[in-house]
Amino acid sequence: MAPVFPAAADPDAPLQAPLEDPGAPAHTPDILDVLIVGAGLSGIGAAATLQRRCTDKRYLILEERAAIGGTWDLFRYPGVRSDSDMYTLGYGFRPWTAQDAIADGATIRDYIAATAREHGIERHIRFGHTVVDAAWCSEHAHWTVQAHRADGSSVVLHARFLHLCSGYYDYQRAHRPRFQGEAAYRGRIVQPQFWPHDLDYAGRRVLVVGSGATAVSLVPALAQTAAHVTMLQRSPSYVVARPRRDRFALRLRRWLPEKAAYALARWRIVLESIALYRLLRVLPGFTRRRMIAMAARMLGPGIDAGTHFAPGYKPWDQRICVAPGGDLFRALRSGRAEVVTDEIAHFSERGVVLASGRALEADVVVLATGLRMKILGGATLSVDGRRVDPSRAMSYKGMMLSDVPNCALTFGYTNASWTLKADLTAEWVCRLLRWMDRRGLDIAVARRDPSVPDAPFLDLSSGYVQRAATILPRQGRRGPWRVHQNYLRDLAAIRWRRIDDGTLRFGRAGELPGDDVLTTPTKAASR
After folding, report:
1. Which terminus, N or C, of the chain has the lesser number of Cβ atoms within 10 Å?
2. pTM of the model as a whole
């Protein structure tokens, strides 16, 4: 493998010195081939794929936090876990070998860190670096990236290709509604995203506000030691029980070599998930009744599933919540927890008063009220001095923004495991780089076709998606601008179809193929 920039175990080791000329020629030794932003599940996977498929490329990873793991390092609340099986949330190139198919956050974090360690990726990571600006220069065919360090200093890097793997959650802020009378409340109000390490909830009454995946994970975990847990939801979500372990996958391990068993288990789950999703969308009434009936059987006669587990929307208009081993239903059935469907009118000294007039007393209130989305990790992008507005861009194959050269974004699936799409994106970036190298090309850009009608990027009615509608890019109503949310269709389009598909435009340093239609001047450019 070609030399990389000096790396040390010390996460605060200095990066290479910034170039004096931000418009340096494209093939100087001081310019990275690839700069990856984010050392979470996507970023580590992208780095491992780059090392295996593009062995001559020099790269670095910039990570805002002080550790590997991304979301799985950030979220430390009780019960945090995946809601996807690890045979598909795990990397395609590294088998998942733990017993549980639905894993807790710490185990997932260890899996990501072990992958980085085994592939020698750690020495390429610079922790405590927040990317704030990335500027593309067509004349020299590279990005100039500014990052703020944890110590308050800044650093400038140059890279020919930018791969953004920072996800779309805002790590600094969660969705936090304000309620009347909060100041009068004598207990403690916490948010799962910023779970306090000193919070002792054992033997105390806990009120969890919310009905999404976070609340469904929290309630059974808290109920193990709390005096009582109440899940207060304004409206229900679909919740289904799934086994913690995949017996078929475990049997395959006994019969087949590890990699073959993993691949078969992964493909079985992929095909089963696609078929189930299709069934839910084609027969929403039938599948809705089935899910409510399944919840009723898990709850027993004392809890009304028709009130608390019968949403007013169709299956997969929002994500379906998973209860591993039926843990939420078991906690409710035991009486250690209860579910209440109502709205908060106001807080009181001892808890909350609901719109119905009922009072719920609690020593701790957990606001599991949703996440905030942040596009591009909060960084600003510009192309030849013109600021990029992501909300006006169209997504090319769910991996690039229109009119933004040499930049890939990793967006996982919403109806399947995130990593399935992340793996495909990482592979495609390597295909693209090798294809360009063979032809002596420096620039790849997806030019938007104004004749293609647009649509929302994510087809979900979830609150966090609707709140982010003004910052997310658009998708097109036909390929290659369509975001399919279907692994088989993406596999064909991303892994097998031609790179030069008639939409991507290519050029050499000094060229920017086609007309720039989506960017707006920055203040600096207008001067």
Report:
1. C
2. 0.91
